[in-house]
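Input structure tokens:
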């Protein structure tokens, strides 16, 4: 009888242990003004849940709310909802089924399009786009983003404008480059010195929280005898699901390496790197610029910034983008290239984080060089306080903690 009792006690104890391992409590301290940015935690924090399908629930004031989450490469991702006051948010992670409202990666018309369940968000053009009839084919390009859509569906990018046929939405070429004794311009295609082109795709990822693609770009030097790739670039773009929010987040990572045994020196020049030619609807009457240092369209050009908001009226609505530079980037806080208010008489808009605007950057063979940027794409208005909070959460992401049950 004693042995049966002891066996029953052991069984109950082990059952409680297993049950306790099938859920975990997570806490996130959210500062005031937090703009609802993604957070993540390693799945190795939850050994008792290994091998289970997982579900995440926010527990607040007696209410339990399902939270979309995504597992990817040993990490768990979700979005913390924005709030105007600092607070602690508590979640329960447990074994169980969840509703998968995955984002999608769709290939159509030479483009990779990232969509949420309700809308198109971003289109990456991997096939070569040629200029209009009668324009030199030297202005053709691949490997750029257009359109970038606002959450309400307005196009915020522009390609091949008559004033600059080499402008392609959001793109990342370098303007003044020293390679094997020659200076090469990968930006101004009309000079016919070089270009940047799509080479191939890496893996793409989809889920309830984000979709991501990886694309390899070649920075090609044009020579009389042949073309030569001087610089390889792996571009990783991750787009987070907007859900029912009036904004969404796009993260960029550019991993650059020399393609030969020769170094590549990015020479000081007034523009180059991560550029955005904005919608043609914007001008100096219906759009604004504000940088992290309080600079506006009048005086932002040539100043350094952690972030820059460009926003205005478009399609009968109001929309914009917050451009953010990551702290580890070369020459951070980065110099801005912002077109003057009188550009073409009406104030057409172009914005550019240009780390080589005021200094050279030498890229050595055998080394990798990384630039990271985040865009917050929104409808409505974005304030300086919101941009500051969003940048802080980008520079120093919130760190969830696991509580002992």
């Amino acid at each position: 009888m004693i042995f049966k009792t002891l066996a029953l006690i052991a069984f109950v104890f082990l059952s409680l242990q297993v049950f306790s391992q099938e859920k975990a409590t997570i806490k996130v301290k959210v500062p005031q003004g937090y703009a609802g940015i993604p957070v993540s935690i390693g799945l190795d924090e939850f050994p008792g849940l290994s091998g289970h399908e997982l579900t995440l629930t926010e527990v607040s004031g007696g209410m339990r709310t399902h939270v979309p989450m995504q597992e990817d490469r040993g990490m768990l991702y979700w979005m913390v909802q924005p709030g105007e006051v600092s607070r602690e948010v508590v979640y329960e992670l447990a074994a169980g089924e969840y509703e998968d409202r995955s984002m999608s990666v769709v290939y159509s018309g030479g483009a990779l399009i990232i969509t949420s369940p309700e809308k198109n968000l971003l289109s990456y053009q991997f096939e070569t786009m040629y200029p209009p009839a009668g324009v030199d084919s030297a202005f053709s390009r691949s490997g750029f983003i257009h359109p970038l859509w606002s959450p309400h569906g307005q196009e915020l990018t522009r390609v091949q404008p008559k004033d600059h046929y080499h402008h392609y939405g959001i793109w990342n070429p370098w303007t003044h480059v020293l390679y094997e004794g020659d200076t090469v311009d990968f930006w101004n295609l009309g000079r016919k010195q070089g270009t940047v082109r799509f080479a191939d795709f890496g893996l793409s990822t989809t889920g309830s929280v984000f979709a991501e693609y990886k694309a390899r770009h070649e920075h090609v030097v044009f020579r009389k005898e042949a073309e030569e790739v001087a610089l390889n670039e792996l571009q990783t773009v991750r787009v987070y699901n907007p859900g029912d929010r009036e904004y969404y987040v796009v993260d960029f990572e550019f991993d650059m390496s020399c393609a030969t045994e020769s170094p590549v020196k990015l020479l000081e020049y007034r523009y180059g790197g991560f550029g955005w030619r904005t919608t043609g609807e914007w001008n100096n009457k219906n759009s604004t610029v504000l940088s992290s240092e309080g600079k506006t369209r009048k005086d932002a050009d040539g100043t350094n910034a952690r972030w820059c908001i460009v926003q205005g009226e478009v399609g009968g609505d109001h929309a914009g983008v917050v451009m953010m530079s990551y702290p580890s980037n070369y020459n951070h806080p980065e110099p801005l290239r912002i077109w003057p208010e009188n550009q073409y008489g009406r104030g057409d808009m172009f914005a550019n984080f240009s780390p080589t605007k005021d200094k050279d950057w030498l890229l050595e063979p055998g080394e990798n060089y990384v630039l990271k940027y985040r865009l917050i794409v929104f409808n409505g208005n974005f304030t300086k306080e919101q941009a500051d909070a969003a940048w802080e959460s980008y520079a120093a992401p919130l760190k969830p903690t696991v509580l002992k049950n």
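The chain has a mean pLDDT of 93. Residues 160 and 314 are 19 Å apart (CA to CA).
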